[in-house]
């Protein structure tokens, strides 16, 4: 999801997406360690998504 789309979402939804993203990243890390993960690009995509959400939260906090 692009940053423009994320900015339109309510703060609670972003918090839920952040929790889900962190949980998915944790699971992917375990899968990578146990050699179950085939698509390692997914880890980078999840990290970028988490970073986008955190950036948007920080900017919203500084504006108010």
Give an account of the 3D structure.
This protein is mainly alpha-helical and 64 residues long. The chain has one domain (9-58). It is 80% helix and 0% strand. The protein has 3 helices and no strands. It has helices at residues 3-7, 11-33, 41-63.
Question: How would the blueprint of this fold be written?
Answer:
Layout: H1 3-7, H2 11-33, H3 41-63
Helix pairs in contact: 2-3
Major sheet characteristics: none
Low-confidence stretches: none
Structural class: mainly alpha
Rg, Cα atoms, Å: 13 Å
- The helix fraction, in percent, is over 70%
H/E element order: HHH
Number of domains: 1
Which key terms come to mind for this protein?
80% helix; 64 residues; mainly alpha
Q: Can you give me a brief rundown of this structure?
A:
By secondary structure, this protein is mainly α. The protein has helices at residues 3-7, 11-33, 41-63.
């Amino acid at each position: 999801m692009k940053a423009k789309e994320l900015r339109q979402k309510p703060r609670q939804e972003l918090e839920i997406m952040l929790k889900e993203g962190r949980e998915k990243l944790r699971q992917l890390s375990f899968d990578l360690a146990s050699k179950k993960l085939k698509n390692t690009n997914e880890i980078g995509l999840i990290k970028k998504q988490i970073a986008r959400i955190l950036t948007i939260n920080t900017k919203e906090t500084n504006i108010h």
